[in-house]
Amino acid sequence: MRPDQIQPELYEQQLGDKQAELTRLMADLSLPALEVFASEPAYYRMRAEFRIWHDGDDLFYAMFDSADPRTPIRTDQFLAASRLINELMPKLIDAVRDVPILRHKLFQVDFLTTTTGEALISLLYHKPIDDEWNAAARLMSDAFPSCHFIGRSRKKKQILTRDFVMETLTVNGHKYHYQQVENSFTQPNAGINEQMLAWALDVTKDTSGDLLEMYCGNGNFSIPLARHFDRVVATEISKVSVQSAQLNIALNGLNNLQVVKMASEDVSAALNGDVALPKALVQAGMEVLNPSVVLVDPPRAGLDDATVELVRKVDCILYISCNPETLKANLEALSSTHKVVRYAMFDQFPYTHHVETGVFLERIG
Ligand SMILES: C[S@@+](CC[C@H](N)C(=O)[O-])C[C@H]1O[C@@H](n2cnc3c(N)ncnc32)[C@H](O)[C@@H]1O
Q1: Residue 297, annotated ligand binder?
Q2: Residue by residue, what is the 3-state secondary structure of 295-324?
Q3: What are 147-157's pLDDT values in tens digits?
Q4: Which of 73, 211, 240, 312 has its CA 20 to 30 A from that of 11?
Q5: What is the pTM of this model?
């Protein structure tokens, strides 16, 4: 992405263009009216990554245009990133510039921030980092209260204080607390995420019984949704995300949500009866789970055939998608048993062609 693509004065127009594009793509499907959720037009991304460009003893943040990937675009401020990232950007460059061990061979900086004012800053190096680097980084970090620093070089990660931030999201007046770990999946646009969570609570408000969730990440959806259900079993492939989800369950005082580390393919094979139920699913209470809703939030590839067959067995399907193309293919496959009763577009990634979509399906007849 080029920084000059962020043009808040054109926000409404780009949102309208995206809505038109999504409507064109989905034209063959039978869908209810589209609910459109707008982003903040600027300062909406809680994380951002920048390359570092060196110019003699000076250095600056750089971004690249995919059409011209060799030419750095100096990026002193980035309107898409949170206000806190914009505040930290010049402060960090000033702190690093005059300390050779921090500056030398620094090639990337990653920021992860929260709506509550915490920041995690990762400094990535093309050189080994050692105790001397650690001491210099600690000295620098004194000037950055509420910031946590990580140094990375090939095969080495030095965590100065911690490698996560604590986020609090407010949905319908309730506060939900989440640990978010460096390099693990988190929804980038906190404002849109709060709107997605409110929408997921709204579409499931009249359902009761149990919830089965796949691709649960750090429990982003599971935690607010658990209040609508008797029991929830959620699954996820990433060990780090599962550990965060376990912590987040405790942080939010839930006792009806179990998270299992397992690939969706294995969950589907077991629940479709192709293989015996793995011990981890038995221990999570899957044998007695009677889901009235299944929630899926897969990566861009969408649902594989076995997972489509699994979700088809459940009366209601809540599907959050970051790729309308694969969503469309999955909806076509599900159209013989389910109909879409709610349909929403969330502008998670303004000024890009990416769009996040939510659909809620009910069994036909
Ligand atoms: C789009 S993210 C959604 C995460 C979460 N629902 C959220 O809102 O933050 C997709 C998640 O699917 C997980 N994932 C990717 N491939 C998977 C697989 N084959 N089986 C299970 N989980 C997978 C990723 O680790 C990631 O956490």
Answers
A1: yes
A2: EECCCCCCCCHHHHHHHHCCCEEEEEECCH
A3: 999 999 998 99
A4: 73
A5: 0.96
